[in-house]
Amino acid sequence: MSQSLEQLREEFQYEKTNSCVQCGYCLPVCPTYATMGKETHSPRGRINLVKMVGEGRITDLSVLEEPLDLCLGCRACETACPTGVEYGSILEAARAALVRRKKFSAPVRLLRKTMFRKVFPSSRIMKLTASALWLYQKSGLQKAARASGIMKKLPYHLGDFEAITPPAVSPAERNQAPVRVKAKGEKKYTIGFFTGCIMDAMFQRINRLSVLLLAEAGCDVLVVPKQTCCGALHAHSGEIEEAKRLARQNIAAFEQADIDFIVNNAGGCGAMLYEYSHLLANEKEWADRANVFSAKSRDISQVLAACGGLPDLQTRSGERVTYQRSCHMTNVQKVVKEPLELLTSIPGIEFVEMEDANMCCGSAGIYNIVHYEESMKILDEKMNHTKATGASVIITTNPGCLLQMKLGIEREKLTGSVRALHLIEYIAEAAGIS
Q1: CATH no. of 320-431
Q2: pLDDT given at position 177
């Protein structure tokens, strides 16, 4: 075997492809295969392409770019797979190998470097971005921009996403966000709260409600300083080394706190934190520390459920609710029952499960921006199942899912009759916490 082929096998994690027996159990659960109908856009098809690279049958690596780029990374195939194929590892390794070899144009290279290395990891820049969004919304600029029609001319359908951007928190309110909150009543756990980058910038209200609900349930909560972006967007985009750097920073930050659990409220972030043990498995200095970190990582629904839920929830008579599952919570963290337990503990609601509840909504980080048309096909199918439930409330547990379902509501012209909320927002409403 030539050295170059041996290197390709290692980079693309060829050995892991041998677990795939091409049985096809992954096909019915794959959103891109369902909407595109191409074998190369299915999990087994993508695995077969990587396998052919490792066997020297594909030498032009560019043929892998579209199939891998159009994968949502929802990993439903892993849940369905009878042989335990590590599709997520294969996908991210292949993407990283392609990025190492790809010659990006100067503007794209600069944009990637700026966003991945300077913007997302910087709490200062993310806070400035949040403040700019607040100013845009409150100053009249938003109304003027919408009235001018310029939103319809923005690239990547960004005008559609601007329409469903949540109200920003003022800089003054942001500066008053709690960093340490004592448990109400008897303390059950001590929590280190993971704020995230997008969550802290765009969904700071949900973060604040998360901290208050944890305290209400009986937890001391500490917002650990010096934490940073989880690295999920980096890993999914082939920037594995930068993802590892962020993982090391987060591990070091949370090691400084005496806590029982590291708690997040975003399915995508949670999956990344959960997988730090895999990400750093080959780094001698960090492997054991990553294992400890991942073992402590929990979705907020797990901790609230372990605390016995929230007391004195208000009755919401006759409100019909459905639940859009986070792919990464379901397929990576395997957190399935706790969100439903919390949701159905709210007295008076009528919970209706949608058909194909585990199917991805098409958000997948920034997939719905860079692959808008493909994403909308998946979303439209999801909205068909959502409408069939007759629900007036759609509950999610991930910011990307939340925005995607809000966009689905807009596309179906259901604004005013249906609303999408994060699980934390809905529980806080029922608990009378604002």
Answers
A1: 3.40.50
A2: 87
